[in-house]
Design goal:
Strand order of the largest sheet: 1-14-13-17-15-16
Number of strands: 17
Radius of gyration: 23 Å
Largest sheet: 6 strands, mixed
Shape: globular
Strand content: 15-25%
Distance between the termini: 74 Å
Oligomer: single chain
Length: about 450
């Protein structure tokens, strides 16, 4: 059994509605809206214009610097290239494609003649061109994580914890696509040059563990499945590293600082598909659940599918639905509309009825300290809340607010129902704004001094 990490909570997993439901293929939507920002880094530049015909797997967005390319998920005609609403708030430049329902695959999609004979550099290049990112929600470009970790990483971990309530997409992938998971993990072992890859899975997914172990035994794969205790946020990168290796990622650090690299289950599947078939990321498995959904399901759909189509496929929303959340209930973001597209990092779309509304308009801290015990990052949420409320940026920085992973464990356990996670998002932005002002002031001061020196020299 894996080791324990500090803090955490035990919310009801709420997975019963979908964990035994196979992944269903959503009927192709008449139109997809593909945002040019589905990764950590600057948005992509559109490569197509209105009227262009595109095919499945064709590159339609190119990145510069840190990022990943974006591909057409359906074949058809480009209807618009314009800002559209997306799940992170506001509008983002998007490519709108009218689906011709032909699913014609682009000539750009080429399967390697012999995937097992590929060199590490060739595999990393394939991963890069396929636009693969952290599909658990972090959306960090996978090729950057791999290339930056080669020679430094000695422990490769596949994150199968799926600790967020309601979400069951990874669990279903373990049951329905174990060969692809193990195949992708095997390619990761080759790229990093490690003897084995560890897949961490919470013990409430025992049938998934058994299924993957069967494939590992059949293929003699360099993969080990590590059962994990059920505890949120077990799926956090730093918590998962500690649970499996016993090592703690230092404050402000990354898993690579302790020789670890972590990949999501569906990211691993995407790696396998890209290396064996050449197909980039064009589809996503989404759990559609919550008390507001008539018939919860696990659905696979083209990237860019309107979320409203997912809800319609699941029987629609109940009349007393009051909130829609993109992602899990702990870390997801509430949405003001269902007219947002499915992106690479969309793991779930949840809808909740009014009977579940538990917020308090004017909460008051009772100094119980439960939030401190629950924080997996060893922070003191009650003080962070006060500093953020009063705009005390120096105190926020000293209290390490940037180490907050916004997991929501503190808000979940707070008996006063303080809006902790929301306030920490606000506090982080306050600190970032202050740091930007400080940098601007320092640059202005430096420029003034240089101007003064030049004037004196004349």
């Amino acid at each position: 059994m894996a080791q324990a990490f500090f803090g955490g909570v035990h919310p009801h997993d709420m997975k019963a509605a979908t964990n035994e439901k196979a992944i269903e293929q959503l009927p192709a939507p008449a139109q997809v809206v593909i945002p040019m920002s589905m990764h950590f880094g600057a948005p992509c530049t559109p490569l197509v214009k209105v009227g262009d015909r595109v095919k499945v797997g064709q590159k339609i967005g190119e990145f510069k610097g840190l990022g990943a390319p974006i591909h057409a998920s359906v074949s058809g005609t480009v209807k618009a290239v314009e800002p559209r609403p997306y799940s992170m708030g506001g509008n983002i430049m998007s490519v709108v494609i009218d689906n011709d329902m032909q699913d014609e695959v682009s000539e750009e999609v080429q399967a390697p003649a012999n995937p097992d004979a590929l060199s590490t550099d060739e595999m990393v290049e394939i991963v890069k061109n396929a636009g693969i990112v952290g599909m658990g929600g972090a959306t960090f470009p996978t090729h950057v994580k791999i290339s930056g970790g080669i020679g430094k990483v000695d422990t490769v971990i596949i994150n199968g914890a799926e600790c967020e309530p309601y979400i069951t997409g990874d669990h279903r992938a373990m049951l329905e696509r174990p060969e692809e998971i193990i195949g992708g993990a095997t390619y990761l072992a080759k790229m990093f040059g490690v003897e084995k890859v560890v897949i961490g899975v919470e013990v409430n997914k025992q049938n998934g563990i058994d299924k993957m172990n069967e494939v590992i035994a059949q293929k003699h794969a360099p993969v080990v499945v590590e059962p994990l205790r059920c505890r949120y946020p077990q799926g956090g990168e730093k918590q998962l590293c500690q649970a499996i290796t016993g090592k703690q990622v230092p404050p402000g650090g990354l898993p690579s600082n302790i020789g670890c690299a972590v990949f999501n289950i569906n990211t691993t599947v995407a790696i396998f598909r890209a290396i064996t078939t050449g197909m980039p990321v064009v589809r996503k498995v989404v759990t559609v659940s919550g008390s507001g959904v008539v018939e919860p399901k696990n659905v696979e759909c083209p990237i860019g599918t309107p979320v409203s189509c997912l809800f319609d496929y699941c029987g629609g929303l109940k009349d007393n639905t009051y909130k829609i959340v993109a992602g899990g209930p702990m870390m997801g973001m509430a949405q003001y509309t269902a007219d947002i597209p499915v992106a690479k990092g969309t793991g779930a779309m949840l809808a909740f009825c009014e009977s579940e509304e538990q917020t308090v308009e004017d909460p008051q801290c009772i100094r119980c300290g439960k939030c401190v015990a629950a924080c997996p990052m060893h922070l003191e949420p009650l003080f962070l809340y006060q500093y953020a409320s009063k705009g005390l940026t120096a105190e926020l920085d000293a209290a390490h607010i940037m180490d907050c992973m916004e997991c929501g464990a503190c808000a979940y356990t707070c008996p006063a129902r303080l809006h902790l996670t929301h306030m920490f998002k606000t506090g982080k932005q306050l600190l970032k704004d202050q740091m930007a002002r400080d940098r601007a002031a320092a640059e202005a001061k430096k420029a003034a001094e240089e101007t003064k020196k030049e004037a004196a020299a004349k």
